[in-house]
Amino acid sequence: MFTKLPIIVLSVLVAAVIFAPHIARYDPIAINLDEIKSAPSPGHLFGTDCKGRDVLARVLYGGRQSLGVSFAAALVSLGIGFIAGLISGYYGGMADTFIMAVVDLTLAFPSLLLAIGISVILPPTKFTVMAAIALVGWASFARLIRGQVLKVKEMAYVEAARSLGAGGLRIIAVHILPQCLSLGIVMLGIKFSGYILTEASLSFLGLGPQPPTPSWGNMIGENRAYILSEPWMVLFPGLAIAISAMCFNLFGDFMQDKYVNYDNSDNSRRRT
Amino acid sequence: MLVYITKKLVMLLLLLLGITFITFSIIKLLPGDPASGLIGQHADPDDIQRINRALGVDKPFIAQFLGYISLLMRGDFGRSYYTNRDVLTEILRKLPNTIYLASAAMSIAAIGGLLLGLTAGLRQGSAVDRLCTALSLVGLSMPVFWSGLCLIIIFSLKFQLLPPSGTGGVRFIILPAAALSLPVLASIARVTRQSVIETLSMPFIRVLKAKGMGSGRINYIHLLKNILIPLITVIGLDFASFLNGAVLTETIFGWDGIGRFTVDGIMKRDYPVILGCIITGTFVFVVVNALVDVSYQMVDPRVRIIKR
User: Fold this and answer.
1) Is B149 close to A116, i.e. CB distance below 8 A?
2) Which residues pair with B86 in a beta bridge?
3) Does A111 touch chain B (CB under 8 A)?
4) C-alpha dihedral sign at B182, B183, B184, B189
5) Closest Cβ–Cβ partner in B30, B237, B252 for A120
6) Cα angle B167-B100-B91, degrees, rounded to a multiple of 5
7) Mutation for testing the A interface, residue in B11, B146, B160 having most A CBs under 10 Å
């Protein structure tokens, strides 16, 4: 049950978010002063917010921001982590020392503080949050991949390729990279829920997409003042975050149990 | 041992220097200059330039950085651009509040997590185990700011038991500490459960059973000793997540600590405040991590490091 349920829920959620324009019956941005702060009802399943906008529509469209940004950030940090890890592990020497020093530095920061620091430099858009998450997240991928490269590059077949005259780049791309891919992807599955929570935290603090564009985090931040009187404005986007994070957590656990003997005390799944 | 600690200290200093450099670069890359933030963007350009000069913002990057380092060495974090108060004094005034909040949260998380993890791990596969696992999953997945808001709805709005915000005594700290502790409690529970299960499958436990020791004694003396190591790791590392979480929790609960101070600084582009907070936060984090590293060797004789 714990392996199939999250995949089903996630598929439904992702499909709902992708097909948001076909599902939502209301415009997520248009202000409707006639229906301000109405409680959940058959007309507005999740109620409306302080500007009369349908919360369901905003949750669906907000998911495009939240999940999309997390996914993009995950891919970018995986990419940077791979490049840094491959160079560092394969070439060693100065490059290795330098890259690992940067990795250690990055990991020495409390992650949210660093992400906040990065995202205040850039003007607040969805790109900002993506960059901030990716620039914090790449380091643990780089360290993981470097370790794997160090193992793989000593193997006989790499030695053989080298003695046949293959260049460094070719060996990395053709012989070493494939051996690291699955590990990187498993790690991505394990860490993804953390990305969703970080994205939500940053947009909650107002560093992400700006109103009226909805994202799950900024919906909560924007309507915080109404939690005492109209809790549904905050409840539903929060549920969306919690449910998707939970599904990815379960999914990550599944990957971890199945594919890696991963050290449980590792900090890679620390929450914000 | 002495060599190890010295090496660790040197690394620590280098790390702090690097951290200062990165935060400083971040702050210098911020859009907008403090002067126009201070007196408005439409102010006279001459005034802006004058204020920038007074604040020292027009000097070259490296000069500013070196100046900042020498100030830091003297314990001078600068003054807030807005309140003109000494940043270090403000941080030192607010840090105890954050530490108070963090220790309350850690007590809840450590006790709750240990109980939950032990309950689950000792009855692996049972309904209780599955319930505990599910609970810790929920704890891990909820964003801190949202669970905080939910706690306010339930305890301040519905039952009116506790104040929704403010800094103060026990009544004020319960909700923010609970919100802050949730994800950590969950991760402690998971680690405890995992290491209970691992330890119970070890040969020495079988030996103890074979020689007739009761399960109570095995569990509470031999088992507890062995699950201590991963626990210390998690507890130490979770100070990081407390610094992360404090930024959000303190903002929601209006707690007067350095987390909220950071967020306020960001909103107002108050460079000395942001930089001071990030440096203090990261400093605490790095030092705690180093302490955790050293404390392994005291707790676990197996990890005593021989290599130089």
Assistant:
1) no
2) B79
3) yes
4) positive
5) B30
6) 75
7) B146
**CA A25 to each of CA A19, A53, A54, A63: distance values in angstroms, whole numbers, following the listed order:** 12, 11, 9, 16
Q: Percent helix, strand and coil across chain A, each rounded to 5?
A: 75, 0, 25
Query: What gap in Å lies between CA B263 and CA B283, rounded to an integer?
Result: 18
Write out chain B residues lying below 8 Å of A117, CB-based.
23, 26-27, 274, 278
Non-local CB neighbours of B260 within 8 Å, separated by 6+ positions = B247, B250, B251, B254
| C-alpha–C-alpha distance, residues A270 and B243, integer Å | 12
**A272 closest CB neighbour out of B152, B244, B289:** B244
Taking CB atoms and an 8 Å cutoff, what residues of chain A touch B150? 235, 238
B151, B163 contact by CB (below 8 A) = no
Q: Which of the 8 DSSP states describes residue A20?
A: H
For residues B268, B272, B275 and B277, what is the CA-based torsion angle, rounded to 10 degrees? -80
Q: Is residue A48 helix, strand or coil?
A: strand
Domains and CATH numbers, chain B: 2-73 (no CATH), 99-268 (1.10.3720.10)
CB B259 within 8 A of CB B248: yes
Most confident of A198-202, A209-213, A263-267: A198-202
Q: What is the pLDDT of residues A145-197, one digit of tens each?
A: 999 999 888 889 988 998 998 888 888 888 899 888 888 888 888 889 899 99
What is chain B's pLDDT, residue by residue, as a tens digit (308 residues)?
A: 677 778 778 888 888 888 888 877 876 776 666 666 666 667 777 777 777 777 776 777 788 888 878 877 787 877 887 888 888 888 899 888 988 898 899 999 999 999 999 889 888 888 888 888 888 888 888 888 888 888 888 888 778 778 877 777 778 888 999 999 998 899 899 889 988 888 888 888 888 888 888 777 777 788 888 888 778 777 877 776 687 788 889 988 888 888 889 888 877 777 778 878 888 888 888 887 777 777 776 766 665 554 43
CATH number of A5-10+41-271: 1.10.3720.10
Indicate if the alpha-carbon torsion angle B98, A239, A192, B111 is positive or negative: positive
Lookup: tokens for A162:
């080298």
At residue A244, the pLDDT reads: 92
Q: Is the bond leading into A123 cis (omega within 30 degrees of zero)?
A: no
Q: Supply the pTM of this predicted model.
A: 0.84
The strand pairing partners of A48, in sequence order, are: A54
Residue type at B240 in one-letter notation:
A
Task: Count CB atoms within 10 A of the CB of residue B255.
Answer: 26
Cβ contact A107:A139 at 8 Å: yes
Find chain A residues with C-beta within 8 A of B29's C-beta: 121
CB-nearest partner of B153 from A113, A231, A264: A231
3-state class of B4 per DSSP?
helix
Cβ of B137 within 8 Å of Cβ of A116? The answer is no
Query: How far is CA A213 from each of CA A28, B56, B94, rounded to the nearest angstrom?
Result: 8, 38, 35
Interface of A with B in 197-236 (CB under 8 A): 197, 200-201, 204-207, 217, 220-221, 224, 227-228, 231, 234-235
Neighbours of B45 (CB within 10 A): 9
